Structure formats: structure tokens, C-alpha cells
């Protein structure tokens, strides 16, 4: 969803205030919230992506006015109420009681086994890398265009990076896909890439010319950059991957320009297009090796 | 600036609640704020209407979203009054505290029929931003355009979600004061103003409704000719594969 949590490219928040020797928790309640979150996770049984999506769905004003751990606390309270573990009355009465007598001891539960489990979870994290049989669609250096996706649910593609041209700079293997995982629709792991997008592509000609954003994007967020594929054709294919690409393009080109009488005597408009294509064809053909031609023929046979 | 006031295309605010028989003012204080703003009460800054709008956009994001329309107006008016030097923040706070203690305290009242008549005229007629300029419009109705990807730090009337999108000129409204400079005291610089039609799918991708569009008024400098569309048009006119440009276009289609 396009909610206000997606503040990439937004002005008006003032400078980022970097704190020297920033503590892990500013207030004791922050550490406690963090602990509560981890001890409650097994009861709530929701993936991190779903928790994240819930935070995004907090009311815009609440979201912006709250600090990081306030958002976590709000989220946790709502989750405990929704799962029936606590009622809002129980939470309210406890808050009131503690407000009246702040010195009242906080209930304490000692369970070394659970504590050890949480400590282990914190150390190890919960990796989202997965092995999939599908080969990656893109290679490092490939030119891509990010899709203009505006889902109503969770997504990890910020608004400011949509519909932009970029280059694949790294491949990270397959990772759980948050857009489905957040909604209980399965992990559907996909290949994950780092994409480099120039500042001027993102923010227009007034942006710095030598700046860029590197952002991790899932495969289904990306499409090949059609204009770049054509522009890349004149370059002699080096890697086997590029040859494969050239093959695919050539196969298409031959199919389209097959000089059958049907095309040349067909609708005038189509003839014109076919002629134009033939003008362009020799250049394409000159760059294609023999085995590729064979491949193209096969394609032609198949199409009959 | 890309601030939170630019909520076009943002989810999470819930449905628009249309109120049956909505009153002009929900509370008496809203009427009073409207009056204060029209009077430019205490505000001797030379801020233009565009400049005042820009001030609203610069309110802190959480305050902006947490405020109602007239609460924002009031916050801005206080800012302008303080900047003018007519009142200090301390004086405003003291008066507010006084009223909080004694809500029945009489409100100071000034009668000035001539001034009141002037304000009534302004409220009725508005302040037209239409101007006459020599420069001919660059675009005609039906022209295909591409909106520019502009992200100025100052005021702009080009929402984020409409940038770098293909559209069609649907109307021409003559020249209008250019808010992007006028808001900053950099002159009116009137430009031709157009209504641009952008399809929902161009804005929101292939999952959007195929038969919906947004019609939005844009100043001429927000818009560039759609180069891809121009190429096609030229080919159709020349009728043959002449220019390098046409061949390129054909190659693209390969």
C-alpha cells in the first residue's frame, strides 16, 4: 500500500539527527517493548512481513507522531487484543494502576528455557534466504525498468523507485517474497537483486549527476529495459548469456520479417512496417552467428 | 517540495466521509479564523496566496496530518503575525491561557465598515490569477505530452504521482500566474495553463482500471512533448521510411 510510512523522497522532516554513542534503547520501556515483542511472537504466530504491514497500516497521524518503539507497542497491543490473549480493558486497567502507583512492582516471569530460546533467535535471526530451482531472470549488468506496481497490500518497492530505469548490480539468491508472505499467501521465494538507479532518473535533471540509489528489489518488481536491449544489440556479444539474448531477439526478428507474399500484399500499413523492419534487419543479422540462424529456422518450423 | 500535503495516491486515510448538508463552518472559531485570514489580521508580510499555501505545506508532517483545515489556517496565521512583529508567541500563549481560565471573557471587537466592505468584495470576486501574455501556447488540445520529473525544494502544483507520465492535453485555459515562483516572491511569471488527461493505468500500472483517468491542471513548464508520440506522427505524415528517426522507431518495434 502507498501509505505515509513510505517517506523516501519526502521533504519536511528536517535533517537526520545522528546521535553520538546512541544507546540501543533510550528508555527502559523501549527495551521492555522489544522483549515483549519477542516473547509474544510464538503466541501471535505471524511472519515479520505481516507485523511490518500492520505497522504501515497504523493511522497516518499516529504513525508519524509515534517513535519506533511506540509503533511496536501499539502494534503489539492490538495483536494481543485481536488474538484474544488480552482485552483492551485489561490493558487499560493495568496502565491506570501503574499510573496511580508507579512504584508498584512489575510482574515478572522467570523461564530460562524461553529466555534462552529468544536469545538464540536474536543471535541467529530468522533468515529469509531459500533455495529455488528457477534460474535468475537477470544477470549483473542487465538494464531493467522497475514496474509501476501499486498494490493495496504490503510491498517492499518504495513509490519513488517505480517506473524507473536501473542496472542490476548484485544478485542475492532467492528470498521469501514479502508481498505474499505478509498476507499469509505463502513464502513464494524469488530471486532478489540490488538495483542501481541514477539520481537524475529518480528526481529529474536538477538532481546530482553522480549520485545513485542502490536498492534491493525482488524479481517480480522488475522487467527488462526494452529500449536498452535494442541499444545493446550492436555490441558484440561476449558472454554466453548475451548470445542467448541475441538469439532470442533474432528469432523474433526473423519471425516478424519473414518475406511471405501474405505480408507484402497484405494491408498497406503492415507492408510499410515490414519494409522498415527489413531496413533494420541486415544490421541485426550481421551480428548473429550461424548456430543462431539454425535456431531461428527451428523456430520457424515450429510456428508452422 | 515533496511534503505530506501531497497525498494523491496515498492509502491509509480511510474512506472520504461526505457529510450531508455540510455547514460552511463546523465551529464558530472556524468562521473567526476565516475572517482573520481574509483581513490578513496582524500580517504585514507581503506573502502571496501561493506563498501562504506553501507555508501550510511546510507545517511539521505530523502536525499537518493531525490538524483540520482551519487548524492549519490558524497555525499559519499565528506564524505570519509573529513574523510581522505584531505579536509574539508569548503574547499569543498568554491570551490563550487567559481565555482557558475565563471562557466568558469578552472578545475585543473593532468596527470598520469600509474595510469590511472591501473584504466582502474580495470574498465574492476572489483574486483571479489569469493574465494576458504574448507567448503563444506550446501545446494544442489533443497533443500528447510527457509530464516532467520535477522535484523542486520549493512550492509546486505538480503532484508527485503525476510526474513523468504520458498524457493528452484536454483543455487550454490561457495564461495564469506561476505558483512555483510566485510563492517565493520571484514574480508572477504567468504561463499557459492546460488540463492534462492521464489514464489510471499510466499512473498506477496495469492493475488499475482501464477506463479511468485523472484530469489535472498543469502549467506549461511542467510539460514536455511526448517524443515517442511525435516520432509516430512524423512517420505518418511523411508516409515513407525516410529519416533515421523513423528507422530507429521501426527498430524499436522489432
Could you describe the 3D structure shown?
The complex is a heterodimer of chains A (304) and B (254). Chain A has 13 helices and six strands. In chain A, strands 1, 2, 3, 4, 5 and 6 form a six-stranded antiparallel beta sheet that branches. Chain A has 304 residues and is α+β, with helices and mostly antiparallel strands. The two termini of chain A are 46 Å apart. Chain A folds into three domains: 28-126, Cyclin A, domain 1; 130-226, SH3 type barrels; 233-303, no CATH class. With 254 residues, chain B is an alpha+beta fold. Chain B has two domains: 28-127, Cyclin A, domain 1 (Orthogonal Bundle); 131-253, SH3 type barrels (Roll), CATH 2.30.30.50. Chain B has ten helices and six strands; from the N terminus they run H-H-H-H-H-H-E-E-E-H-E-H-E-E-H-H. Chain B has helices spanning 28-39, 49-57, 61-66, 69-84, 89-101, 113-125, 179-182, 200-204, 227-238, 244-253, and strands at residues 130-131, 144-147, 166-176, 191-199, 213-219, 223-225. In chain B, strands 1, 2, 3, 4, 5 and 6 form a six-stranded antiparallel beta sheet that branches. In chain B, helix 1 (28-39) packs parallel to helix 4 (69-84). The model of chain B is unreliable at 234-254 (pLDDT under 50). The A-B interface holds A 1-4, 9-13, 56-57, 59-61, 64-65, 147-152, 159, 162-163, 203-207, 226-227, 230, 249, 252-253, 256, 272-273, 275-277, 279-280, 284 and B 1-4, 9-13, 57-58, 60-62, 65-66, 148-153, 160, 163-164, 204-208, 240-241, 246-247, 250-254.
Amino acid at each position: 500500500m502507498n501509505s505515509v510510512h513510505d517517506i523516501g523522497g519526502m521533504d519536511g522532516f528536517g535533517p537526520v539527527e545522528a546521535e553520538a554513542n546512541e544507546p540501543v534503547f533510550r528508555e527502559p520501556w523501549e527495551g521492555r517493548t522489544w522483549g515483549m515483542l519477542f516473547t509474544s511472537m510464538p503466541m501471535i504466530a505471524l511472519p515479520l512481513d505481516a507485523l511490518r504491514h500492520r505497522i504501515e497500516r497504523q493511522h497516518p497521524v499516529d504513525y508519524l507522531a509515534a517513535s519506533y518503539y511506540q509503533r511496536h507497542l501499539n502494534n503489539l497491543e492490538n495483536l494481543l487484543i485481536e488474538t484474544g490473549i488480552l482485552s483492551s480493558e485489561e490493558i487499560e486497567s493495568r496502565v491506570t494502576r501503574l499510573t496511580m502507583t508507579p512504584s508498584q512492582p512489575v510482574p515478572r516471569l522467570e523461564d530460562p528455557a524461553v529466555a534462552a530460546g529468544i536469545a538464540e533467535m536474536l543471535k541467529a535471526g530468522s533468515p529469509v534466504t531459500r533455495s529455488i530451482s528457477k534460474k535468475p531472470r537477470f544477470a549483473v549488468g542487465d538494464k531493467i525498468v522497475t514496474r509501476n506496481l501499486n498494490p493495496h497490500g504490503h510491498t517492499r518497492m518504495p513509490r519513488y523507485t517505480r517506473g524507473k530505469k536501473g542496472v542490476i548490480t548484485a544478485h542475492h539468491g532467492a528470498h521469501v517474497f514479502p508481498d505474499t508472505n505478509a498476507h499469509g499467501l505463502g513464502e513464494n521465494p524469488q530471486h532478489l537483486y540490488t538495483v542501481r538507479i541514477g539520481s537524475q532518473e529518480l528526481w529529474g535533471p536538477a538532481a546530482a549527476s553522480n549520485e545513485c540509489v542502490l536498492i534491493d528489489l525482488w524479481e517480480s518488481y522488475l522487467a527488462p529495459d526494452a529500449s536498452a536491449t535494442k541499444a545493446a544489440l550492436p555490441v558484440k556479444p561476449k558472454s554466453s548469456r548475451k548470445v542467448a539474448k541475441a538469439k532470442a531477439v533474432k528469432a523474433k526478428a526473423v519471425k516478424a520479417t519473414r518475406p511471405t507474399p501474405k505480408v507484402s500484399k497484405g494491408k498497406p500499413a503492415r507492408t510499410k512496417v515490414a519494409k522498415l523492419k527489413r531496413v533494420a534487419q541486415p544490421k541485426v543479422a550481421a551480428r548473429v552467428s550461424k548456430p543462431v540462424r539454425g535456431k531461428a529456422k527451428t523456430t520457424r518450423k515450429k510456428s508452422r | 517540495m515533496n511534503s505530506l500535503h501531497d497525498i494523491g495516491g496515498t492509502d491509509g486515510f480511510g474512506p472520504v466521509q461526505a457529510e450531508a448538508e455540510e455547514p460552511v463552518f463546523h465551529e464558530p472559531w472556524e468562521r473567526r479564523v476565516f475572517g482573520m485570514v481574509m483581513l490578513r489580521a496582524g500580517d504585514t508580510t507581503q506573502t502571496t496566496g501561493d506563498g501562504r499555501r506553501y507555508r501550510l505545506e511546510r507545517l511539521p508532517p505530523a502536525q499537518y496530518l493531525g490538524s483540520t483545515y482551519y487548524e492549519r489556517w490558524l497555525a499559519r496565521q499565528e506564524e505570519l503575525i509573529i513574523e510581522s512583529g505584531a505579536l509574539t508567541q508569548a503574547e499569543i500563549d498568554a491570551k490563550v491561557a487567559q481565555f482557558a481560565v475565563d471562557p466568558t471573557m469578552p472578545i475585543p471587537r473593532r468596527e470598520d465598515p469600509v474595510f469590511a466592505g472591501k473584504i466582502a468584495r474580495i470574498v465574492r470576486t476572489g483574486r483571479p490569477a489569469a493574465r494576458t501574455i504574448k507567448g503563444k501556447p506550446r501545446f494544442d488540445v489533443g497533443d500528447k505530452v510527457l509530464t516532467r520529473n520535477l522535484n523542486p525544494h520549493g512550492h509546486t502544483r505538480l503532484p508527485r504521482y503525476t510526474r513523468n507520465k504520458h498524457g493528452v492535453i484536454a483543455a487550454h485555459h490561457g495564461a495564469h500566474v506561476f505558483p512555483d515562483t510566485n510563492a517565493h516572491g520571484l514574480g508572477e511569471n504567468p504561463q499557459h495553463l492546460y488540463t492534462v488527461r492521464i489514464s489510471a493505468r499510466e499512473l498506477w500500472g496495469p492493475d488499475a482500471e482501464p477506463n479511468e483517468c485523472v484530469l489535472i491542471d498543469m502549467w506549461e513548464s511542467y510539460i514536455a512533448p511526448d517524443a515517442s508520440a511525435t516520432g509516430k506522427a512524423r512517420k505518418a505524415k511523411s508516409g515513407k521510411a525516410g529519416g533515421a528517426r523513423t528507422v530507429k522507431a521501426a527498430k524499436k518495434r522489432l
